[in-house]
Amino acid sequence: MARIPDCDGVHGAPALVRLVHQVTALEFGPATRYDGGLLTIERHDAERLLAQPALAAVRLSLASPGDSVRLVKVLDAVEPRAKGAGGGGVFPGFVGPARSQGRGSTHVLRGMAVVAAGYLPRAQESLVDMSGPAAPLSPLGATHNLVVEFDPAPDARWEDVDEA
């Protein structure tokens, strides 16, 4: 884990610190944990966290560099981050309340992405090859990816599916 200070504390507030955990392998297992580069994800807990009324189904899969896999219907990707002590949110105003940032600790899973894949009207879809000559064409071809594929609920509004 690398400890990267981003700024000095202001007026006695603690500095913002990024605690970077390098992900070198990804697998499903009995408990979610990070150990020496290996991120293990408990599939059923993650599926429960992602369940939303606007989604009929959520499926999780893993794709790592060199795997003979093509990701399709890719809508978005994010490097996982979580706040530690010090408060605030990771993406203020988007996935939490808008508030001042710049203090506390943020844990970063470097070398990994959470990839949303599915169908939304008017969304720009893309694909990612994890191996072969097209793999270097996307930065996601070089990351360990937790792919979250979803099916919209039949009666859900598209705005609710997009938010979910």
Characterize the structure shown.
This protein has 164 residues and is mostly beta strands. The chain has one domain. The chain is built from two helices and twelve strands, in the order E-E-E-E-E-H-E-E-E-E-E-E-E-H. The strands form three sheets. The chain has a five-stranded mixed beta sheet with strand order 6-12-10-7-11, covered by helices on one side. Strand 4 and strand 5 form a beta hairpin. It starts with a strand and ends with a helix. 18% of the residues are buried. The mean pLDDT is 86.
Helix/strand-derived category reads mainly beta
Spell out the helices and strands N to C: EEEEEHEEEEEEEH
The strand line-up of the biggest sheet is 6-12-10-7-11
The fraction of residues assigned to DSSP E strands is: 35-45%
Shape category: globular
Distance between the termini: 31 Å
Q: Tell me the radius of gyration.
A: 17 Å
How many DSSP helices? 2
Number of strands: 12
Concise synopsis of the structure shown:
This protein has one domain (2-6, 14-96, 103-163). It has helices at residues 43-50, 158-163, and strands at 2-5, 16-22, 25-28, 33-35, 38-41, 55-63, 70-78, 81-83, 104-110, 112-117, 126-129, 144-152. By secondary structure, it is mainly beta.
